[in-house]
Amino acid sequence: MTNTDEEKTVREAASAADTAGNAVGSAPAAKRPRKRMAVTLGVIAAIVVVAGAGLWVWHEQPSFCGAICHMPMSQYVDTYEAEPGQAATDKWGNEVSDASAMTAAYHRSETGATCLSCHEPVLSEQVAEGANWVSGNYEVVLNPTFDGVLLERDENQLTEASGKAGEEFCLNESCHNMTREQLIEKTSDRDFNPHVAQHDNYDCSTCHKAHRASVYYCTKCHSEAADELPAGWLTMKDAEKLEATA
Ligand code: HEC
Ligand code: HEC
Ligand code: HEC
Fold first, then answer.
1. Cα–Cα distance for residue pair 44/49, rounded to 1 Å
2. Which of 79, 158, 168, 221 could disulfide-pair with 211, CB 3.0 to 4.6 Å?
3. What is the pLDDT of residue 140?
4. Considering only CA atoms, which of 92, 69, 96, 81 is closest in space to residue 148?
5. Which of 66, 70, 96 is nearest to 83 (CA)?
6. Which of 113, 111, 98, 112 is closest to 212 using CA atoms?
7. Of 94, 99, 79, which is closest to residue 145 (Cα–Cα)?
8. For residue 213, which of 96, 118, 110 has the smallest C-alpha distance?
9. What pLDDT, in 10s, does the model give residues 138-167?
């Protein structure tokens, strides 16, 4: 490259820059559409955010689960909205003499728990569910003896996606912040302590049922446990007579 060539290139570049500068400076009209574009994009973004938030709120309602994938959630909503101290109906349609025996009703009334307080959404699980729904790659497994009701889950299945131990479903910082030992302490004033791990550490959901009357499992063998049957609870014998089990 000769000297003159170099100068020419530099001059051309400078003039190009000048023209570009002028184009911006001398054409204020060009700013308007850009501003309008910015406003339009802002509005679209706002709509997306509001619609997204609306969808998010709806997605947290039982009507979403019922509308999109599952069976209608009405029997679960009814057991959740039942009033402790009053008679109610379980998810299978059996009578419950006191709704406080249904953990979902009890927690709603005592702590204001929502469905998602217990059925904690895990993002990876939701994304997988969404993908399966889009591809139709899922199956709703119904109770074989009671039409229209899902198979009963236990706490281990409910914590599967989050990788928590089953009992962390209940024993965790935001719910029952205690150890098994402290739980045994809590009910040590009873003649027969249901939480003592005499034989095994039973899952909480062995006895505490969310959407049907809780069942005092120990009554299967210890008849004395039935003397202190909490309101609305069932003995093993009565629970086995229910119209549908698991
Ligand atoms: C206090 C915690 C809690 C609340 C609140 C709660 N659930 Fe559950 N849910 C459970 C547990 C525990 C199970 C496992 C079965 C059982 O123990 O009864 C379950 C099971 C289920 C199942 C699986 C099917 C079955 O019968 O096991 C569905 C569906 C369900 N719940 C929906 C809901 C909906 C909808 C709401 C809100 C209207 C709700 N749950 C509120 C704890 C809760
Ligand atoms: C063998 C049956 C059984 C099992 C298993 C069981 N519970 Fe209980 N639980 C009971 C009974 C019965 C009561 C007394 C209920 C009442 O008085 O209304 C009770 C009461 C409770 C209470 C109230 C205690 C109080 O008086 O303040 C809590 C909290 C509780 N259980 C949590 C749990 C948790 C968490 C698990 C699992 C780690 C669990 N339970 C496992 C039967 C059981
Ligand atoms: C399948 C029957 C069966 C079930 C269910 C059962 N137990 Fe027992 N339990 C026994 C037998 C039999 C004994 C006496 C022999 C022994 O100590 O193992 C016993 C003994 C006990 C003892 C020692 C004191 C005593 O009364 O002799 C305690 C405490 C106890 N069980 C608590 C529980 C609790 C709490 C539950 C419920 C979570 C439960 N058991 C469920 C059969 C059962």
1. 9
2. 79
3. 64
4. 92
5. 96
6. 98
7. 94
8. 96
9. 666 666 666 666 788 888 888 888 888 888
What the block records as the tokens of 76 is 């679960």
Residues contacting ligand 1 via CB (< 6 Å): 62, 73, 76-77, 80, 91, 103-104, 107-108, 113, 115, 117-119, 150, 152-153, 155, 158, 205, 209-212
The model's pLDDT over 25-46, given as tens digits with 9 standing for 90+, comes to 444 555 577 887 888 788 777 7
- pLDDT tops 60 at residue 168: yes
Residue entry with tokens 């302490």: 185
Tokens representing residue 157 in the block: 């299945």
Pocket test residue of 98, 106, 185, 207 for ligand 2, highest count of atoms within 8 A of CB: 207
How high does pLDDT run on average in the chain?
A: 79
Are residues 130 and 141 in contact, defined by beta-carbon separation less than 8 angstroms?
no
Q: What is the pLDDT of residue 148?
A: 61
CB-ligand 3 contact for 201 (6 Å cutoff): no
**Residue 9 is encoded by which pair of tokens?**
């290139």
Which of 157, 151, 84, 149 lies closest to 120 in space, CA to CA?
A: 157
Question: 20: exposed, middle or buried (C-beta count within 10 Å: 0-12, 13-18, 19+)?
Answer: exposed
